[in-house]
Structures are given as C-alpha cells and as structure tokens.
Predict the structure.
Amino acid sequence: MKLPIFCCSFFSALLTFSAQAEPWIDTSDLYLKADIQQLANAGFITTPITTYPLMWNDIERDLQKIDVDGLTNTQANAYYSIKHQLKLAKQNSTRFKANIASSDSRFTSFGDTYREKNSLQIQSTFLTKNFAAKIAPTYTTSNRFGQSKRFDDSYLAAFWGNWVVSIGKQDRWFGPTWDTSFSLTNNARPMPAIALSRKSALPVTIPYTQYTVPWTLTTFMGKMDDERIVNNTLLWGFRLNFKPLKNLEIGLSRLAQWGGDNRSTSISTFWDILIGRTNCGIDDLVCNENNPNPANQQAGYDFRYSTSLFNTPITIYGQKFAEDGSAEAFRYVTKAQLQLGIDANITLLDIPSTLYFEYGDSLADCGIRDNIGDCYYEHSSYLTGMRYHGRTISNLYDNDTKSYVLGVISQLGTNTHITHKLRYLELNYDNRDKAPNNPLIGNPLTSIAENMTMLSSSIRHSYKNWRFTLDLKLSHSTFKNSISSTSSFDTALTVEYNL
C-alpha cells in the first residue's frame, strides 16, 4: 500500500474545502479519555466509548444535552475540558511534535507520547462534509521498530450515510481498560489498513417495545508489512460494542491473521474465517506441510459496569480473550484468559482524579498436553504471531505474564495534568520461549522469566499553542536464571506546537 503517494494526491484537493472538524478521537490523549469516561459513568454520555478511534459525532451530541448546572464540580471540569478539545478538533490544524528520550520505550500504553527516542513529526488535519485527512510524516533516529521515515497516524476517510470508510495507519484500542488490553492496543506501530466504521451509534429498537440499544461497529483489514516468517500477512479485525443499559457497555472482538505470501486470500478462505472453520482437525480441515493452517484467530468479550459506592462513582470492568483451539483440545478456542479492573472518580487533596487497578494473566493452556504457555499471541503456521515490528499488537506485556497495575490520572489545573503508574510484572513467568535465538519468533520482551517493578510519572502542561510532556520511569528487574538484577531510570520530553 503506497500510503504516502495516496495521501499526497488527496492533500491538495482537500484544501479547496472549508474545514469543520477532525472526525474522531485517537489513542494519544489519556486525560480526554478519563474526562469522557467520567461523564459516561454518570450517565451523561450514552454512546459506547470503549473502541478507539472514537467518533466525535455522538460525544458532541451528548454534550449538547447536558445541563451544566446539574453537574458536580469534577463533572463540570470534565465537561469543559471535553468542550475545549472538541473546539480544537473543529479547527484546521498543523502541529509540530518533537520528542527527546534517553531510550526507546519498552511499553506503549494509551496516551503515551512516544515509542522510540528522538523523533520529529508534523501533523496536518482536514475535514470537509464528505472527506477527512490527516498527514503525519515522521522522522526518528531510532529504527528499532522499522523505518526511520514513516507516515504513522496518517489517514484518509470518506463519509457515506452513517458509515465512515478510511485508509491509513491509525492506532486502535479495543476494550474498557486503561493500561493494557488482551485484544488490541497501540503498543505496536499502526499498520496500513482499510477500515469501515459506524459514524453514529444510532440505537436499535427492540421489536414490540420502546427499549433502544445504542451500538457501534468497526472492522478493518490491515497488512503486516514488516519482516516476519509469513511476509505480507493480513490482519482482520472486528469489534461490536453496545449499551443494553445506561450504565453497562459490552464489547465483542475478533482478530484473525490470514493470507500472506504463498497463502490463500480467496473469498472462501475468508468465509471460513468468519464462521470459525479454521482449526486443524476440526470440520474436516487437514493441516500439513503442504496445507498449513489458513488462519490464526482470536476472539473475546468485555464489559464495563458503572455504579456508585458511598457516593463515589466506581466502575468494574473486565475482558476474556482466547486463542483459536485445536483438535487435541476438542474445542474451537482455548480457555479464555482473564483481565479485570476497577476504577473510581475521586478527589485527592482537592485534586479531581481517576484511580484504577488492573490485573491480567496471559499464560494460556493451548490444549496440547504438557504445553501450557508459549501459545498466547503465537501460532503454528503464522510463526511471528500477533506481533508487528517486534511488538505485540495486543497486551503490552506479551504472553505468559501476570500484570498488576495501579494508576492515578489527575488534573492539577486547567492546563496541567499528571498521571502515575505503579506496575508489578511477572514477565514470561513460565521461563520459556518458542525460539529464544530467533527475533521473528517468540516473546519479544524477554526469553526468560523477569520480575519487574516500574514506577512511572507523566506530567503535561499546556501554554497557549504549546504543550509540554515530561515522562519519568524508574524500574528494577530480577531474574529466575543466574543473572544479576538490573535497574534503569529513563526520561523523555515531548514538545508540541499548534500553528
């Protein structure tokens, strides 16, 4: 996909239209997500909000219905913050973004400002009645995750009724979580993809009732054009999320790797993927050296339920996500892995904050005797697995890991925000790897067991057209093998300027 050429061909044409707004919210602003979630917890935002990019259309509609006089102080702060970001999104913009860091980031979570050290990006966004575009050329001195020159975050989009068709390289996030998700995150670089999404979560009415359920849907087909065992592998993604109750949101997600060099990309193969008929030894599917498994599939569901405890808004959320199964397991999927979390909107020392705790365990039973572990995000024929440019596209901490994350997101003032995270990670705790000497196969974080404690802080301050973000990370790791413990202190400064 020659994205740069395609983008540039539309660039000059879009300038002839009058700009209105950027159509969606991406994964770059954790504080905006926290503000939106707070109003959703209170029932003021009714559209599903656990899929990113998240359309502005319904957020703006719900904001217009809010009576500001009925909000608490913290809710009013969130309301005005969202309104301000919406106002910025309604403007044609060109932004310069520069990052200087002491090292590449080992993990990239929602709202993180960089993956690799020392980068420069120029972003220009446009939207007309029928089209939208974002052009974001980037240069980095670190080529750990692919080319030093790239067009990550760029896209072209067209609107057709209540649907949006887009092409480009966009970060995505599936699920209700803050730190990581077992299904899809922005941990890896975005891959080129074609996507189809609902523009508005217009509700469906249950027959013979007045009961309505807002719902949204997105699906994409991406190309994993990095270096891998099966080059040019395709990635199909699908997500449906809906709100059967005002305080309950449910999401259904699927991912499937298929196609690639010397692999079938026929309609019949994709149909088999859609109906789940791609497990060797099941449904008369015979796999061998000359007929490899046609797809690597994952599927799961998640929920987010909001309530209050002692007049404090709290939310319980979780996710179960599974790999495809095998004949030996006599099931279509493996035992689904569990991720749970809880968050609360509180005031700490007169500072409005979101406090959360998340737990996850990605050590899976693959259904093969004596082979528990080394299978989540792995596959028998797509050997590079659910990874892109050396990073898992899903869980930040890859497979066979227990993660415990305590985080707090705070607003110190109108223009100043801060977040803290305390992570305890049992990385690759089965102490094995599929191919420790092959960088294209197996766990890219560590081939041996590593227990890591990491404390990180990020403070963001906006001043007129400037935005400054300072990141600090302190970590300590111990190993089960005869390896000395290690410690590190990393810093990064990101500077953004809006023309």
